[in-house]
Design goal:
Blueprint (H helix, E strand, L loop, with lengths): L20 H20 L4 H5 L10 H19 L18 H4 L5 H23 L9 E3 L5 E3 H27 L5
Antiparallel strand pairs: 1-2
Helix pairs in contact: 1-6, 3-5, 3-6
Length: 180
């Protein structure tokens, strides 16, 4: 197999024809999370922190930090109504703090992945308690407008899909690996 692709045995994504809307949304979200993780696999701190093209601050490490912050914001702050807690890796004077702080330091890499995984685990634990009927329940989002849990889950799939595409291009620029 070309070194442009991961070995199929390393691909943990599932395509199990889930039954029900909640199961479908969860499978898509889980698969996109795994796609981002696969794009980062086998890279060192310098490669993970490598910026794409100036003036962009985007890097794979920045994406991991950003997605951890996004998971925390939507699943913890919004869906569980903990808006009084500050957002992770977001600064009022630097809207790119999640990307700007993505530096080539093994400790930063370790903390970024640990934070992202903690946020995913917390989100999944919350989703485990959610009934299919809850998907239509509305919560207030940042602008005070109502949105259904369903809309927020679809938004999370969209967020990951967009960033998985970014991750694909970033990884290709680092070592030529594409696909998946």
């Amino acid at each position: 197999m070309s070194d442009m692709w991961d070995d199929g045995a390393e691909d943990l994504r599932t395509y199990g024809n889930p039954v029900g809307e909640k199961a479908t949304l969860r499978e898509y979200l889980s698969n996109y999370r795994l796609t981002v993780e696969m794009k980062c696999r086998g890279l060192d701190a310098e490669q993970l922190a490598r910026r794409s093209v100036p003036p962009s601050t985007m890097s794979l490490l920045g994406l991991v930090r950003h997605l951890g912050s996004v998971e925390h914001n939507w699943f913890h702050r919004v869906l569980q109504d903990h808006r009084d807690e500050p957002r992770l890796l977001v600064s009022p004077d630097n809207r790119d703090a999640d990307f700007d702080g993505a530096v080539a330091d093994p400790a930063v890499v370790e903390e970024a992945f640990a934070m992202w995984k903690r946020q995913i685990a917390a989100a999944d634990a919350w989703l485990d308690e959610l009934d299919e009927a809850d998907l239509g329940r509305e919560v207030l989002v940042a602008d005070g407008e109502p949105a259904s849990i369903r809309d927020i889950l679809v938004h999370m799939v969209e967020e990951y899909a967009r960033h998985a595409g970014h991750a694909d291009l970033l990884r290709e620029r680092i070592d030529g690996r594409t696909g998946q």
